[in-house]
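Schema walk-through. Below, the input block comes first and the output block second. Nothing else is stored per chain. Lengths vary across the set, and this one has 144 residues.
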Amino acid sequence: MVLTSLLFVAGCTGSTDPTTATVFDNIANLNSGEYDRQIAQNKSQADAIIAQNKAAEQRNAQLAAQRNANQSEINSLRQQIADVKAQGAKARAASASDPVKLQQVQALDRQLVAVERDVSSGASPSVVRPELSRIKAAYRALSI
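--- output ---
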């Protein structure tokens, strides 16, 4: 009678949560493979999370590489602007006695300021570089 009552109670609870399952539930869950299924499910979820984390780390690394490349490009453009400014200074010095040339230098100075503003605003280097080359060549022509 006690054994029957005990089996009846064990059959009624039926918990598959190891933290709340009775001894009889644990035995039933082990025998049925329920705990193995839960372990496999949890492992699968953990593997998915790990895969997502690895993908996120790869995206972060790609973004960091892109940021570094962008910073390098910006530094290169700033150096090119400095070179053009130096060419402008030479043109200004060479044109000091010629008001017409001096006006042309001043117009180029304004264009260079606009290009520099474009660089600060994130303009495409493929647009900015040719403009800087054109301004530098114009300064050079006025320096002669």
